[in-house]
Amino acid sequence: MSSLTKADWDSKLPIYKISPQKLHNQGIRCLLLDVDGTLLNRNTNKIPDEVKSWIKTSKNLFKLYLISNNPSEKRISSIGDQLGISYKFKALKPSKKITLEIINIMNETNKNIAIIGDRIFTDIIVGNRCKINTILVARLNREGLPVKINLTLILERILSLLLF
Ligand SMILES: [Mg+2]
Fold first, then answer.
1. Neighbour-count burial of 49, counting CB atoms closer than 10 A to its CB (0-12 exposed, 13-18 middle, 19+ buried)
2. Which residues have C-beta within 8 Å of that of residue 37, sequence separation ≥ 6?
3. Angle of CA points 116, 34, 93, to nearest 5°
4. Coil, helix or strand for 109?
5. 14 CA from centroid of ligand 1 (Å)
6. Ligand 1 centre from 96 Cα, in Å?
């Protein structure tokens, strides 16, 4: 069952170093984006300029949707509004239900959809369970830079080896 926790692309890069054009060339037409850790650090409300610019480029190439497990509608709606992207808060990843609902709204075949997130046990597992492409990215710190040592991810990698 190791495939459940395995990202199709374990990038080790911050999201803004992922080439939108390269994803588009590979047939991706829709991106489901995790929010906390992926677009900005969970302890700040400031979206890094690099992320804003990446989103701007990506809007020309993909349908975008934010899917966050964060229960705060205030936070996720504020980020969605700033970026001009539809959003879902309290998405309960890795439970499939809500992510599947959004996949259905996107109206694309699964092979043309990718989820991008910073966690294996939520973003990657839900993506694999929903049979879409999965891209693991580096978590962002408050300054918008990739964190050097991500203990959550280290733990998730160890648990993946032990449990799956
Ligand atoms: Mg996250």
1. exposed
2. 117, 118, 119, 139, 140
3. 100
4. coil
5. 12
6. 16
Structure tokens at 5: 């926790």
Per-residue confidence of the chain (164 residues) as pLDDT tens digits? 468 999 999 999 999 999 999 999 999 999 999 999 999 999 999 999 999 999 999 999 999 999 999 999 999 999 999 999 999 999 999 999 999 999 999 999 999 999 999 999 999 999 999 999 999 999 999 999 999 999 999 999 999 988 87
Distance 82 CA to ligand 1 centre (A): 18
User: 3: Cβ–Cβ under 8 A, 6 or more apart, which residues?
Assistant: 128
Superfamily designation of domain 2-163: HAD superfamily/HAD-like (3.40.50.1000)
How far, in Å, CA of 109 to CA of 125, rounded?
A: 19
